[in-house]
TrEMBL record:
The keyword tRNA processing applies. Residues 252-258 are annotated as: RNA binding. GO terms for biological process: tRNA queuosine(34) biosynthetic process. It holds the Pfam family TGT. Catalyzes the base-exchange of a guanine (G) residue with the queuine precursor 7-aminomethyl-7-deazaguanine (PreQ1) at position 34 (anticodon wobble position) in tRNAs with GU(N) anticodons (tRNA-Asp, -Asn, -His and -Tyr). Catalysis occurs through a double-displacement mechanism. The nucleophile active site attacks the C1' of nucleotide 34 to detach the guanine base from the RNA, forming a covalent enzyme-RNA intermediate. The proton acceptor active site deprotonates the incoming PreQ1, allowing a nucleophilic attack on the C1' of the ribose to form the product. The keyword Lipid biosynthesis does not apply. Homodimer. Within each dimer, one monomer is responsible for RNA recognition and catalysis, while the other monomer binds to the replacement base PreQ1. The lineage of its organism: Bacteria, Bacillati, Bacillota, Clostridia, Lachnospirales. Belongs to the queuine tRNA-ribosyltransferase family. Coiled coil: none annotated. This is Queuine tRNA-ribosyltransferase.
Amino acid sequence: MYKLIKKDGDAKRGEFHTVHGVIQTPVFMNVGTAAAIKGAVSTEDLEGIGTQVELSNTYHLHVRPGDQVVKKMGGLHKFMSWNKPILTDSGGFQVFSLAGLRKIKEEGVCFNSHIDGRKIFMGPEESMQIQSNLASTIAMAFDECPPSLADRKYVQNSVDRTVRWLKRCKTEMDRLNSLEDTINKNQLLFGINQGAIFEDIRIEHAKQITELDLPGYAIGGLAVGESHEEMYRIIEAVVPYLPVEKPTYLMGVGTPANILEAVDRGVDFFDCVYPSRNGRHGHVYTNHGKLNLFNAKYELDDRPIEEGCQCPACRRYSRSYIRHLLKAKEMLGMRLCVLHNLYFYNHMMEEIREAIEQGRYKEYKRQKLDGMEAGE
């Protein structure tokens, strides 16, 4: 399943073998919430920019078009014509972030759809059933993501419930994987570590979920309002208590700097909406920091977004032209910026893997961070 190839300090270089192919880690998963990357990015585009894993959202696909529709269409891989690994998150985060009116019980959560207001109930079994219908490569456990600044008692109760829910997820996934009509009978379940910013609760939770011997583990509930320093402190505290011979996934993180720092602390799976969201607003990542192409100084700039970049935008178009497209609200402008940003992230992960293999990760990280901080 997971093969640890090389360690450089705490940084890990590995391979994760799945039914849909091998994932080279560290990896950045490109976020396609509703089975598409926002910004008119096609599956062919994803193949062209070196995407290894596509991430889709259980809650959003359950609401629209409906996971039964996806199952009838042969599962998510067939539906979106993508043959590499797909990770689906459990819907837990959306239930807690989107749903203002929700009721948490031991069975699960009752809430209203953000699309049409209809009542939805989701618990561990429902989340696993939806993800089984989607037939993703990796399914995430259904958990509660407590607010980062919640009080200790609330967080402890929430984490205890998340442990009970994880056991139910595992039982249900084992059942679903044994059924005749299940599309992906090799679906993998990752558990999620929670505990807000309480190190001792996090560590105890990490020990409990490690005992379940799952194929992989995530650190959830970070990048939700705490400082970067607090996030790094929690990662440093938790990672030693998660198995080194399994992938560690930091959910919803983050900026290039966040990723570089987290890799150094032993994390090897990442996802974040930043590259696509920022790209749609004309903000593009480079090795010299982030540029806002709406700025007037790029009006007559005939250079690509980044010299030497091999993404579809930089191989052909100037900053001036892309700025014009953005100002004119032409969709191509958004599309080119999103493609550039995703390529930048995917390519950075290639560089990270190479640096770890060569035993020079710390030096690489420092140079990369210095360059991005220096700016143009």
